[in-house]
Structure formats: C-alpha cells, structure tokens
Amino acid sequence: MTTARRSEPRRRPELAAFLRSRRARVTPQDVGMPAGLRRRTPGLRREEVAQLSGVGVTWYTWLEQGRPINASGQVLDAVARTLRLDDAEREHLYHLAEVPYAPTREADAQSVGPEVRGIIDALVPLPAVVYNSRYDVLAANSAYQGVFPAIALARGPARNVLWQLFAMPPCCCTIRNRDEEFPALVARLRGAYGRHVGEPAWETLIARLSGASEEFARLWASGDVAPHGNHLKVIQHASVGEVRLISTSLVVGAVPETRIVVYTPADEESRRLTAVLRTAHDPLLGCPAHSRPASEVRAELERKWERERESGRGKERAAGRPDR
Fold it and tell me: How much is the pLDDT for 3?
C-alpha cells in the first residue's frame, strides 16, 4: 500500500467516523447475509464490508481508521454501494477521502413540480424559464412567453431553445447579437454533453441540429466548452423592436441538471417593452419582413397536429388496433 499525500488535520478522522456510522446502520439481512451469533455492535463487521466491496480487509480497516492511504473512485464506489450511500453521502465520502468527485449520471428532467413553477410565476414582471441541460423548455412564466412567443406554441422536440434559434431562417432569429450568443450557447451545451455522451436523446438532438443548421454544425465541431453565467441578449421582437435583457442562471437543486434563467431588462426602455409584451393579446412572430400574428401560427400548427393525429389513427386502424 502506498502512502497518500498529507491530509488536512480533520479530514481523515471525519472519514473514519463517517464510515463507522454508515456501517452501523446496514444489517446483514440488508445485504442478504445471515445475522449470525454474538454480534456485539449493530450493523456489518469490517470484514463483511471488505468482502462485499471486493477489497482487502486490512485496506478497508485502515481506511475506516483514517490512515493516510490512497483510494480510487472505483473502490470508493464499491464501498458506497455496500454501505447503501445515497448521492449526497457518496459525494461526502469522496470529499473526505480527497478523491475528485464524479457525479452519477442523471437523466435529464422533462418536467418540474408546482413549487418550481410557483417560483418563476412569482418573478413576473421579469421573464423567467426553466431549462434542462439540453435547453428543453420545462416551464416558462407569462413574461417569458411574451418575449419569446414561439416557445409557447411549440410542442415536443421543437420546444427547445437551440432548435428555435438554429432551425429558422437567420432573418427571423430573435437574437440580434448572435455572433456572441450562439457560440456561447453551443459551448454550454457541449459542456453538459460530456455527461451524456451516447444517450439517445442527446445524440438525436445534436444530429437534428447539425442537419438543420450549418452554423450549429460548425460551432459544435469547434469543441469549445463554456460555463453558465450572466449574458446580455439583444432581442429583435417583431411587435416592439429591440429589447435588451441580461440573463442570470440559477441551479435548481431539487431537479438534477435543471436551471432557472431570469431575464432582467438592461435599461428602462427594455423594461417598458417587456411589460408591453407580457400583456400583448396577439404578439407577432418572426422578423419584420415575415412577421405573423401568434394566433395565425397557432391555428396553422393545430391543423398540422390534427392531421398527424388522424394519420396515426389511420395507421392503427390499418394495423387492426381499435381507436383510442
């Protein structure tokens, strides 16, 4: 066994106490072992934890005694599984053992509860939205829908900010400062993609965007990665003209890989225009040359969705399945 670098004075004793307390709460029956006789303390014995984790008894004993030994993430994961640690406890174990923490892979959220919806609704008159790490829109308040009315009409895969920006003609893009914003958006997407490589939902999104937009494909190929932060968005709205907003990203701790993004007007005129859009009855979508009322676009989309439903029912009847 090799000796690890000098630890902080309190870290190893904390690790020892944490492991002992977690071991004491796991019974032999919990892990499919017979209880046996003459157990003087509750929980598993050290040799039982070592056996179930696939590590040496001496090594685990030294780890639980807080001795300065090396531990890999793979071994810590095995111990965490044996001791039935949840995600928070697993992260705590990594930090105490001074091993870089690797979060377990989480599926992207597809919805949020009423508590999170209540938060963004309470932020009105500020536009606010909830995104997952793929930039799917999970919830949006009335002020956000006024500024970005196309999102309120979108369904399924189209209810994604990147799709709304890259899959439309450049003249109808709502972001004026796209030379700064688009590279940053794609770089933040790639930063999240590293945790989801190979997952069908992610690979499908990247393929769809690359097929629909040469600009996205070029930015994606650059390999750039960037963190979330505050950004100025200059928006061209067909109903009111230019609106300047500063976005602030806030992590939603209760929903993995989910953020609330709040848009604060950058000046008084933008504040006034945001309020106008929030109460607009039928805002315009698109650029000034191709703008259309939201009601007209909605009616067209509803006809399209009805045709798709009819087509699906027709295929079910052809396959001998009853109508639902």
Answer: 42
